[in-house]
Amino acid sequence: AQLIExxxxxxxxxxxxxxxxxxxxxxxxxxxxxxxxxxPGKGLEWVSSIAIDGTTFYEDTIKGRVTISRDNAKNTxxxxxxxxxxxxxxxxxxxxxxxxxxxxxxxxxxxxxxPGTGVTVSx
Length: 123
Fold this sequence. Notes:
The protein is mostly beta strands. The chain has strands at residues 2-6, 9-12, 17-24, 33-38, 44-50, 56-58, 66-71, 76-81, 90-97, 110-113, 117-122. The protein has no helices and 11 strands. Strands 2, 4, 5, 6, 9, 10 and 11 form a 7-stranded mixed β-sheet that branches. Strands 1-3-8-7 form a 4-stranded antiparallel β-sheet, with no helix packed on it. The chain starts with a strand and ends with a strand.
């Protein structure tokens, strides 16, 4: 399994960005997927997940500003982020989830990770 994130960059506060997670070696429709982030000097923070049946989950403080989605034909998972704030600055990772994962996921419930894509929000 391989995951490659893209779409990060420098964004102004209040702006939007769409992150992509292209998968290979498996079908994103067959696994639950998540986005997590690591801000500078901080630990890993779960952002959002999409279950196999398409149900979506969001971290409470970011809910309403982000949307996770999946394009099975492109085998890609997306994270649309709006109304960006400087505190959204982080490296964003996508990951597959092991069966039995919970909300919020614990570290051991993630399975395969991408290398991440950086988002910097300027004030």
